[in-house]
Specification:
358 residues, alpha/beta, Rossmann fold, Dehydroquinate synthase-like, alpha domain, 2 domains, 3-stranded antiparallel sheet, 13 helices, 46% helix, binds nicotinamide-adenine-dinucleotide
């Protein structure tokens, strides 16, 4: 098991990454200063049948009195109605201000459970136990919690840091192939924006990653989380540096919206968005074409889409770009790299962005 701390003053917390460590959850939570007390284990209908039992056993062994709250799997559960139902169960089981919420699942469970914990009785302790690649390398760390509103994704939320993160890479074994590959887009992103040697290591290790070799996964998840931790430690509230994590996401979100939600998983749209951002990085910041090609090959090897959708509508695409949170007048604040491993933001016009997409 590998352990490090996210250093955020009074909100600092440990991160544990390992294979087969779910059964240590209770003991590690106590070690992190969480009192064994009443607890809610929030999970979803796919993950709970796989892992809720061993997690409950681990928590009970350390003195937690745990009730499991199961939500329907999928993004459509990340809403105010489901949140209301979760609060009902938290009240029914008589959780109080000293209680703790454990979120066991992907980013959907993590975001909803963390927002429930951040708001229940003005905020109770929360532990993230992510079971997808997206959860383990991205959403569990950073304190962004949210549910969706019918008018937009993640519109209702709060910044609230977990008290501990435990990422057991053995849980990734049961992920469906498409969802496993989707998460790799975020892993490749860390290499492109922060860590050029990581690209070479991913080129070397990709087959082992795709074969879900646990040692390799442990290393990759830890390295990704350390990068995210560095960014969050230096810019917890996304005033500056944290924006680089949006690399590939501006075009990715616009593709999701204009190609129709459901055609692409989020990570697949981000993969296309990263390629667009690399092409723009070549045009606007002199990134060598050999580097654009290198990352394109890696994305293709990971089984992610590596070209623009065949049928896409540039009018819808620009309309979607205009809704981007990073919009500034007739353009957006766009994340580019001038060399692999070095990212910065620059205002780009909508025209410059669409003309580079081909
Ligand atoms: P998800 O939580 O929907 O999980 C994907 C699917 O995999 C679900 O059907 C789930 O039930 C299933 N699953 C989860 N773990 C499994 C396992 N070990 N074995 C088998 N099946 C498993 O999706 P996700 O991609 O993990 O997360 C996406 C969400 O994360 C989005 O809502 C997004 O907004 C959010 N997110 C948040 C942040 C943040 O900083 N808070 C960052 C990135 C993404």
């Amino acid at each position: 098991m590998r352990t490090f701390r996210v250093e955020l003053g009074p909100r600092s917390h440990p991160v544990h990454v390992g294979a087969g460590i779910l059964d240590r959850l209770g003991e590690l939570a106590v070690e992190a200063g969480i009192k064994p007390t009443r607890a809610a284990l929030i999970s979803d209908t796919n993950v709970a049948p796989l892992f809720a039992n061993p997690v409950q056993t681990a928590l009970r062994k350390s003195g937690f009195e745990v009730t499991t709250i199961e939500i329907a799997a999928g993004e459509s559960s990340k809403n105010l109605e489901m949140l209301g139902a979760v609060y009902d169960r938290m009240i029914d089981t008589e959780l109080d201000r000293n209680s703790v919420v454990f979120g066991l699942g992907g980013g959907v469970v993590g975001d909803l459970a963390a927002f429930a914990a951040a708001t229940f009785m003005r905020g109770i302790a929360m532990v993230q136990v992510p079971t997808t690649i997206v959860g383990q390398v991205d959403s569990a760390l950073g304190g962004k919690t949210a549910v969706n509103h019918r008018r937009g994704k993640n519109l209702i939320g709060a910044f609230s840091q977990p008290r501990m993160i435990l990422a057991d890479v053995a849980t990734l074994k049961t992920l469906r192939d498409r969802e496993f590959r989707e998460g790799l887009a975020e892993v490749i992103k860390y290499g492109v924006i922060m860590d050029a040697p990581m690209i070479a290591d991913l080129e070397r290790d990709l087959d082992a990653i795709l074969a879900r070799d646990l040692n390799t996964l442990e290393g990759v998840v830890e390295r990704s989380l350390r990068h995210k931790a560095y960014v969050v430690e230096n810019d917890e509230r996304e005033g500056g540096l944290r924006k680089i994590l949006n690399f590939g996401h501006t075009v990715g979100h616009a593709i999701e919206a204009s190609a129709g939600y459901g055609n692409y998983l989020h990570g697949e749209a981000v993969a296309i968005g990263m390629l667009a951002a690399l092409r723009l990085s070549h045009l606007q910041a002199g990134l060598p074409t050999s580097d654009v090609q290198r990352v394109t090959t890696l994305i293709a090897r990971a089984g992610l889409p590596f070209e623009m959708p065949r049928k896409w509508n540039s009018v819808d695409f620009v309309a979607a770009l205009r809704l981007d949170k990073k919009r500034i007048e007739d353009g957006v604040e766009f994340v580019l790299v001038d060399a692999l491993g070095h990212a910065f933001t620059k205002k780009l016009s909508f025209e410059a962005i669409t003309s580079a997409l081909g």
